[in-house]
Amino acid sequence: MEKLFTPLKVGNITLNNRVVMAPMTRSRARKGDIADELTAEYYAQRASAGLIVTEGAQISVQGQGYLFTPGIYSKGQVKGWSLTTQAVHEKGGKIFLQLWHVGRISHTSLQNNGAAPVSSVAVKAENSHCYALDQNGNPGQVPVSMPQALTIDGIKAIINDYVVAAENAIEAGFDGVEIHAANGYLLEQFINGGLNTRNDEYGGESHSNRIRFTLEVTDAVSKAIGSDKTGIRLAPFGRLFDMHAFDGEEQTWLQLAEELNARSLAYVHLSDQQTLGQQAIPDGFIQKFRAVYQGILIIAGGFDKQLAEKYLQDGCADLIGFGRPYISNPDLVERMKNDWPLTEPDRATFYGGTEVGYTDYPFYSAQLDNQ
């Protein structure tokens, strides 16, 4: 029996199927970094997914690394996002908001008063760019700025920012939140032993120290909104944004898996970066992770219908995340169910702009009706 299109209980909600729309930055927020009616239309079009995880929403000004991305720290942003949750729920969908702090993948032009971005240590991400203002004040890809190492007080303040953002997400009507601890952003900048050389309780050679910040964020968010409304995204062995291999890498991720297993979360979401031009998660690791983490597991990265079904049948995952196919196929569930062809996305319209390449991709059923 096929599993991909069967229901699944996640936390306190039941998903209509095992298909997850994975989080993808689209950079279409309006002034004030507010998600508007266009954002609501975009997600509502894709509401047949079992679960939508939104693009990352920065939890503070400090947490932003890209222009025109939506936030979740102001009243205007909460009101803006409520348009999306209402639209998705009216279509029978479920939606989590991804909570985002980019850490060092930012630029002084995005920070309050031109401050330096923050990270685990004061080490710049080499060959890494963000979307900010160039030296002439024009939007564009610019090299990231040199970060400053967070103080203990700074870490505590960010934990509070995550809590406020999570509470704001629930106020905006989201079914839950996903903590973004993947893809070379702030929390992974602490997890990664090749970068984090701090000599306090948040760093160094100790796996426990390097995962401490991530777990404290998870615990604080869970306490504020409920663990059954809290998910987290990880990228084991990820190399995006100047993340490097380090001694004890597998053990670090498996220790984190063990800690998360004890927390009764809505889910853990693993990001395989092979479709982003990085190395894949090593063979056999998913099975090791699965043996330690026994809650709901999502895996995303390069899946089609057949591979998704295989992972579900083999017990490697409970839900499968689809990213780029959702950009150009709002009815991806229906297309996969009926084996209808997929539309290829236009890369030129991935980031920024208008409804073009955002809400104007056709539903296949409409194309059939017009034939």
Automatic annotation (TrEMBL):
<dbReference type="Pfam" id="PF00724">
    <property type="entry name" value="Oxidored_FMN"/>
</dbReference>
<dbReference type="InterPro" id="IPR045247">
    <property type="entry name" value="Oye-like"/>
</dbReference>
<feature type="domain" description="NADH:flavin oxidoreductase/NADH oxidase N-terminal">
    <location>
        <begin position="3"/>
        <end position="340"/>
    </location>
</feature>
<dbReference type="InterPro" id="IPR001155">
    <property type="entry name" value="OxRdtase_FMN_N"/>
</dbReference>
<dbReference type="InterPro" id="IPR013785">
    <property type="entry name" value="Aldolase_TIM"/>
</dbReference>
<protein>
    <submittedName>
        <fullName>Alkene reductase</fullName>
    </submittedName>
</protein>
